[in-house]
Q: What sequence folds into this?
């Protein structure tokens, strides 16, 4: 009777620190000290360990180290629908900045239900994430409270909360600039295209634009999409263009809404900007392309990411520092739509 052949191991087969120690002829603790900056170890011993590690393809288990130290290098990026609009570009910029910092970015989509949101919070706490960056305009209360309870550094982007470091665009100045630009080009039947989700960012842009237009002597019409996305712009534009006299200028609280509006308006026979000027917000890559050529406000994802990292580093260096609210300027990008 012959023995059955052994099955090959399944899954990853990472080299262990003990295997490196055996290969180098040193103790397991010598391997650990060799990969710990500032640890006491003789140069010859360290040289043997590094040579053995290179030959075996050994990689330090940073996750295990972090759990032992009760803190990992994980940084949670939390957002609802992070693949949509400006958030998608912000996720990319933040991921790059966090990796350069030496952190491991982890993107978590909170979903729409309480169960999904609680699962997100449990995962971050279970893996001892060193910090959380919230990308959603409406972060779940459980996530905010959980970070504060554990003392985990927390940075909000696109929203401010008492006692929390926050980062927002200068929405008011941009909205006022949009109002002045539309009035200066002779528009009188002016509309605001907003969104019913009413995040802090959207509310700030809406309120600032309405106040500026009224100061300039016009009474704007207000239409809101169900969400601040392309579909929201499409559906809201049907109400805007199909009921009474259509506007000759529209300020949209983001580019996705503006693109949905422009496409639907052109399908209905309206010309942009000849019949209706349109201004957006965010300067997504698609905004510069035909047929949009969208006048909009540029938010630089790389600058937003860099400032978010600065807030995170500041909080870790001084946990008792007063909370910071940073407003980042945005730049008007004038194209042909408005």
A:
């Amino acid at each position: 009777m012959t023995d059955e052949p052994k099955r090959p191991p399944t899954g990853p087969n990472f080299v262990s620190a003990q295997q490196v120690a055996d290969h180098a002829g040193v103790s397991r603790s010598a391997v650990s000290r060799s990969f710990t900056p500032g640890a006491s170890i003789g140069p010859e011993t360290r040289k043997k360990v590094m040579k053995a590690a290179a030959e075996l393809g050994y990689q330090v288990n940073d996750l295990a180290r972090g759990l032992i130290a009760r803190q990992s290098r994980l940084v949670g990026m939390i957002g609802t629908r992070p693949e949509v609009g400006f958030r998608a570009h912000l996720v990319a910029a933040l991921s790059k900045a966090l990796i350069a910092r030496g952190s491991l970015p982890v993107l978590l989509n909170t979903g729409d239900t309480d169960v999904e949101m609680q699962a997100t919070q449990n995962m971050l706490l279970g893996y001892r994430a060193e910090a959380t960056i919230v990308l959603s305009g409406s972060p779940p209360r459980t996530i905010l409270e959980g970070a504060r309870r554990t003392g985990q550094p927390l940075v909000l982007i696109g929203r401010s909360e008492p006692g929390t470091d926050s980062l927002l665009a200068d929405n008011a100045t941009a909205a006022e600039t949009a109002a002045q630009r539309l009035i200066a080009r002779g528009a009188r039947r002016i509309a605001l295209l907003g969104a019913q989700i009413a995040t802090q960012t959207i509310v700030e842009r809406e309120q600032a634009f309405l106040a500026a237009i009224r100061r300039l002597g016009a009474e704007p019409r207000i239409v809101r999409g169900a969400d601040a996305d392309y579909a929201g712009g499409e559906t809201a534009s049907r109400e805007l263009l199909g009921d009474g006299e259509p506007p000759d200028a529209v300020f949209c609280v983001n580019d996705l809404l503006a693109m949905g509006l422009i496409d639907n308006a052109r399908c209905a026979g309206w010309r942009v900007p000849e019949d209706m000027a349109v201004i957006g917000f965010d300067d997504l890559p698609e905004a510069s392309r035909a047929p949009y050529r969208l006048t909009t406000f540029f938010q630089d994802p790389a600058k937003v990411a860099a400032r978010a990292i600065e807030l995170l580093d500041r909080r870790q260096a001084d946990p008792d520092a007063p909370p910071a609210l940073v407003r980042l300027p945005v730049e008007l990008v004038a194209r042909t739509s408005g």
